[in-house]
Design goal:
By secondary structure, the chain is an alpha+beta fold. It has a 3-stranded antiparallel beta sheet, with no helix packed on it. 11% of the residues are buried. The chain has 2 helices and 7 strands; from the N terminus they run ββαββββαβ. The chain has one domain. The protein is globular, with a radius of gyration of 15 Å. The protein has helices spanning 22-29, 71-76; strands at 2-10, 16-19, 35-36, 47-48, 51-54, 63-64, 81-89. It starts with a strand and ends with a strand.
Length: 93
């Protein structure tokens, strides 16, 4: 089975930085990409949402295609971000 992924390329002249919102990306994927934060308190673990930072001309690692639903990325496509679709194999357990 293949999972649809995309590579983002910064075609602008400035650094592009974007948070990969848990409510959009992780919820759609049904798995969390956020980094756990150390906590002294009990209860629900705290997490830091994943993010991407692209220097001008830099390409991202393959990302889940759902990142295109993030409003800031959708608005940047064609202006400062180019999108290339890729297929990657996903191992079935």
């Amino acid at each position: 089975m293949a999972e649809k992924q995309v590579v983002l390329k910064n075609i602008g002249k400035m650094v592009f930085e974007q948070t990969l919102y848990h409510s959009i990306v992780c919820t759609k994927l049904q798995r969390c990409l956020c980094a756990p934060l150390p906590s002294m308190s009990k209860g629900a673990p705290k997490r830091r949402e994943a993010s991407i930072i692209l220097q001008p001309g830099e390409k991202s690692q393959p990302l889940p295609a759902v990142v295109q639903r993030i409003p800031q990325i959708r608005a940047a496509v064609g202006k400062t971000i180019a999108v290339e679709e890729v297929l990657t194999a996903v191992e079935e357990v």
